[in-house]
Amino acid sequence: MLTLAEFIRNMLQRWFHDRHRAAQSMRHQLTDVSHLVMLQQVEKCCYITVNPVDWNIFSVKRSGKQWTIDLARKTCICNKFQMHHFSCSHALVAARERNLDFTSLCSDYYKRQTLIDAYSVPIMHVSHPSSWVVPSDIAERGGFKSKDQETIRSPDGGSTCIIFREDNHPIV
């Protein structure tokens, strides 16, 4: 069991390190995937006309359809903007009209720095149980064996598993 735990820890350690390095090498404020999606949204903006209603609200039209966008509340009547917390093409056109940075319309979950922060926590190894300092009240409950405690005995003197309360079950 310890070998499996050690294998998983090593795998997670490698995984976090590799993803942290990849996130640091990204060139944009958004993650690489988010940046590509944003570029696809920008391509859809070509034939959309924009009519400002006020400083934050815009009406956009394309192919006879009309959408209303509120940049302050980050909403669009297509619902993609508020559902995904990522700019729809309608919001991008409105943002371009106001000279806003497109990344300001995206949730932090799509940003490079969030990815860096998520993978910056190191996965450390766990020391051998013999080196653990276990408080006596925990050791008395049977959750751990203290260094000088070899077995845990039930009141009748037999060996009983503390967790499963079964006779002849390995003592935990």
Automatic annotation (TrEMBL):
Species: Dipteronia sinensis
An example of a GO molecular function for this protein is:
zinc ion binding
Q: Which UniProt keywords apply?
A: Metal-binding, Zinc, Zinc-finger
Task: Please report the stretch or stretches of sequence annotated as the SWIM-type domain.
Answer: 67-99
What name does UniProt use for this protein?
A: SWIM-type domain-containing protein
Superkingdom classification of source = Eukaryota
InterPro entries found in the cross-reference section: Znf_PMZ, Znf_SWIM
